[in-house]
Amino acid sequence: MGCGASKADTPTKPLENKEGDMGNKASKPAAADAEEAFALPPVEGELPDGTQIIFVLGGPGSGKGTQCDKIKQDYECVHLSAGDLLRAEVKSGSVVGKKCEELMREGKLVPFAVTLNLLKKAMIESGGKFFLIDGFPRALDQAEQFESSIMPCKAVLFFDCPEEEMEKRLLKRGETSGRSDDNAETIRKRFRTFLEQSLPVKDHYGDRKICHVISAIPHPDVVYESVKQVLDSYNSPKKPTPAAVPASKPAQDATEEITLPPVEGSLPEDAQIIFVLGGPGSGKGTQCAQILEEYDCVHLSAGDLLRAEVKSGSVVGKKCEELMREGKLVPFAVTLNLLKKAMIESGGKFFLIDGFPRALDQAEQFESSIMPCKAVLFFDCPEEEMEKRLLKRGETSGRSDDNAETIRKRFRTFLEQSLPVKDHYGDRKVCHVISAIPQPDVVYESVKDILDRLGAPQK
């Protein structure tokens, strides 16, 4: 646990106990020595009322900078990277910069008084009110000193990533970055420093219920979906966006060129629907096949219905095939028409719908024109694993969309349009997220547990 590490290696909370007082005394000489040795200039001015701060934490190579870049595109915030400020100071050739460079080469933390001075100056000079501070605080005494001398933070984003993955990323970055601390020996020193001093910061804010731990293993776009969910929960200010055509509008335009046959009949009043969602190659079809063996349900795959329409050679099928080759979503009106027809013709009452809805407007249209779903099964799988599975399937499937280029287009489409569906049902507390990484039989155990709790009818 982080608390064990903090007693041995880092200062603990100064206001809570005697050990904390000792830790606070230990940090003062470091700050004082830094101010004397570095000749830190005083910071003039104050932050405006209503200022809000979010700390962005995580190990070296966990992707903090990448996520901050994405946040800046959507949110009205001032991004300050403690690391970038330090590197700028190093590049300036000042006495402070030279001393910082020496410490960074050794994998040590720069005295917090130096970083605090640079941060405070940058915040005041920016004129902003909403700050995203990346890579700080790196130790518990830094967090306490920042909050006592400036102001408490509003929330913390902590990007969680295994050491092996972070090292791999940093070594790759070192090939082109030119950063002196991107080498194997220094990287391992930085990991040790992070584990000893930075993890207690996570625990500290976790105790205050404002630390949000986000897995940094998936593709950055997937990680960012989790980030946005956290920021939106805090009403973080978004940048004004120009009026744009909704993502579904092009699809709607496409349906104007397709004559869809009317669907006759209706579903029984007590019909129940479960949506099965996940990225391409996440194993939705495999899990549905296992469910069908044990549960009395009608399985409808939106993808299979579309492919059957394509195979039929109809005008609708030909237009769908063209869109699928380009990695685009088929207009939801087409899919909705095929699904509704298949559901009514089946005569069933309990439906498992695989691969639909693929966008938020599809979910809303389905539920308003047919009926709300009972639950959602969402199979979570990293992009790298899904691509590997799809390429292997493409060797024998004969599917035109099982090739590397189209697969990547489908991933982008999924990230942009399908993940909001997960968030939508998550807000309604009916979305069950299941890891799709283990063997299918292991994944299915989680599926069965959920279905049984929902009262799904067994054969």
Description:
The protein has about 450 residues and is α/β, with parallel strands linked by helices. It has helices at about 1-10, 20-40, 65-75, 80-90, 95-105, 110-125, 140-150, 165-175, 185-205, 220-235, 250-255, 285-295, 300-310, 315-325, 330-345, 360-370, 385-395, 405-425, 440-455, and strands at about 50-60, 80, 130-135, 155-160, 210-215, 270-280, 300, 350-355, 375-380, 430-435. The strands form two sheets. It has a five-stranded parallel β-sheet, sandwiched between helices. The protein has a five-stranded parallel β-sheet with strand order 7-8-6-9-10, with helices on both faces. Mean pLDDT is about 80; it is low at about 1-35 and about 240-255.
Structural class per helix/strand content?
A: alpha/beta
Shape: elongated
Order of helices and strands: HHEHEHHHEHEHHEHHEHEHHHEHEHHEH
Number of domains: 2
Q: Give the C-alpha Rg.
A: 27 Å
The total strand number stands at 10
> CATH homologous superfamily of the largest domain, by name?
P-loop containing nucleotide triphosphate hydrolases
Give the mean pLDDT.
Answer: 78
Q: Regions with pLDDT < 50 over 5+ consecutive residues?
A: 1-35, 242-256
Strand-residue fraction? 5-15%
CATH topology of the largest domain: the name is Rossmann fold
CATH class of the largest domain: Alpha Beta
CATH architecture of the largest domain: 3-Layer(aba) Sandwich
Which strand order spans the largest sheet, edge to edge or round the barrel?
A: 2-3-1-4-5
Distance between the termini: 47 Å
Protein name: adenylate kinase
Pfam families: ADK (PF00406)
EC number: 2.7.4.3
Keywords: ATP-binding, Cytoplasm, Kinase, Nucleotide-binding, Nucleus, Pyrimidine biosynthesis, Transferase
